[in-house]
Amino acid sequence: MMTITVPSTINQIPQLKCGKSKNATVVPTVDLKATGAAAAVVAACRAVGFFRATNHGMPAGLADALESGAAAFFALPEKDKLEHLHESDSPFGYGSKSIGSKGDVGWLEYLLLAVGSSSVMAVGLGLDRDALRGMVVGKEGSDEMVRVNHYPACPLASGATGFGEHTDPQILSVLRSNRTGGLQIMLHDGRWVPVAPDPDSLFVNVGDSL
């Protein structure tokens, strides 16, 4: 695993502050092939805003290939990765430590790639399958995307926040984890709870736009 040279700005990266909890059962699970899946998706989004999706139809080999390719990229020398650094006027490409355009920082590096679905959610809401996608995809292109985060070994004994407390601006975020824990979500009552990693499932988070 590649390690990032410790910069003088490491103190600007927030320390872990979310309390640990053993209660991971609050994350609902939705079998996307089960009868009533669309209604179950809507119920989970309203109750928690986050759920684990099983029987999602994504071939395991596809996800494994994406993860393997990303790992190979992140293992490249720093100078080679910087050749793919995103432009100032575009979020797509390679990034390190800086998260978004608001000055947030984290102990991570990432690749952001544009791709070309929110149809199950739309059906559950009684809308046309492409209704939600149409809210963000216009004739000029799509802002559906794939983001691959890599959290290098951290030199701080206590650890630093990889990707800090935030909400997603999109309609939906679909997450796939490897076998490393660390993801937490905040419930409506303000409690933070861990999400157990499960590379065979997908995790869906409701974004601000929905």
Entry keywords:
210 residues, alpha+beta, four-stranded mixed beta sheet, three-stranded antiparallel beta sheet, 5 helices, 22% strand, globular, disordered N terminus
Notes on the structure:
The structure is a single chain. The chain has 210 residues and is α+β, with helices and mostly antiparallel strands. It contains 5 helices and 9 strands. The strands form 3 sheets. The protein has a 4-stranded mixed β-sheet with strand order 1-2-9-6, with helices on one face. The protein is globular, with a radius of gyration of 18 Å. Mean pLDDT is 74; it is low at 1-21.
Strand order, sheet with most strands: 1-2-9-6
Distance between the termini: 37 Å
What gyration radius follows from the Cα positions, in whole Å? 18 Å
What is the number of helices?
Answer: 5
Show unreliable segments.
1-21
- Provide the residue-averaged pLDDT: 74
Shape: globular
Question: Percent of residues in beta strands?
Answer: 15-25%
Helix content: 10-25%
Order of helices and strands: EHEHHEEHHEEEEE
Oligomer status:
single chain
Instruction: Give me the count of strands.
Output: 9
Draw up the topology in text.
Elements: E1 29-31, H1 37-47, E2 50-54, H2 60-74, H3 78-82, E3 93-99, E4 104-114, H4 119-124, H5 131-136, E5 145-150, E6 172-175, E7 184-186, E8 192-194, E9 202-206
Parallel strand pairs: 1-2
Antiparallel strand pairs: 2-9, 3-4, 4-5, 6-9, 7-8
Summary of the model, kept short:
This protein has 210 residues and is α+β, with helices and mostly antiparallel strands.
